[in-house]
Amino acid sequence: MGRMLEAEQLAQDVGRVLTRHSNSVGLKPDLRGKKILITAGPTYEAIDAVRGITNRSSGKMGYAIAQAALEMDAEVTLVSGPTALAKPQGAQCVDVESAAQMFEAVQQRVSNCDIFIGVAAVADYRVAQPSAQKIKKSAETLTLELMPNPDILAYVADLPNPPFCVGFAAESENLMEYAEQKRLAKKLPLLVGNLAQQAIGSDDNELMLFDDSGSHALPRADKLTLARLLMQHIAQRYKGAGR
Questions:
Q1: CB contact at 8 A, 126 and 144
Q2: CB within 10 Å: which end of the chain, N or C, has fewer?
């Protein structure tokens, strides 16, 4: 009692109030009451008791999208791999570590969501036989057998009655070509592409949106600004699809 809220929480709460006012007077599309399931952050695949395979994703983009969705009055569930980020106030947060755990968490919740946004940098492979104990160093060459992880986005998009699916593609080259190929292969209404070397670990980014009407650039900005613009585009596409 009497202790002031953390500045970050105050900023988030004030932002939601202002955005809700904008929604109420028709200044932007809102997603009031819609259930949005978001995956964010990296995954961690164990090699042994102390080592693992992961990637450099910070989770910042996924967390910013969760915040932007909350500002549009959506009900947000955030399934997150290991990050150092504060949880978005108002979101139901589910912490996971491996791709298999993230897949299970999504499977348990996807039937109850209207929109699925797969932002997480999910490891494509895991170690086939991780060791329960630390592997001792030796002069011998160590070989790890890797096996593919489940494709969470493809699973959700291929459900008999899927939610509106938004995918992410982080490429290091040929973004326009590879991102559109991924969107068409997975039959997604919207895919968000970016160059990994420009985004990972950064507080800002630039995005390219791919949908049936073509490609749309979101110029470089901080990730929360981009997330708000992206959520407006998602809301428009979602309602345009007759959802």
A1: no
A2: N
Looking at residue 34, its amino acid is K
Chunk the chain into consecutive blocks of 10 residues (it has 243) and report each block's average pLDDT, rounded to whole numbers. 77 66 55 96 97 94 96 96 94 98 98 97 97 94 96 97 96 94 96 87 90 94 96 93 76
DSSP state string for 82-119: S--PPPPTT-EEEE--SHHHHHHHHHHHGGG-SEEEE-
Q: Which of 23, 55, 161, 194 is catalytic?
A: 55
Residue type, 219: P
Is 174 in the active site?
no
Q: Which domains does the chain have, with CATH numbers?
A: 30-131+141-240 (3.40.50.10300)
pTM over 0.85: yes
Contact yes or no for 235/190 (Cβ under 8 A):
no
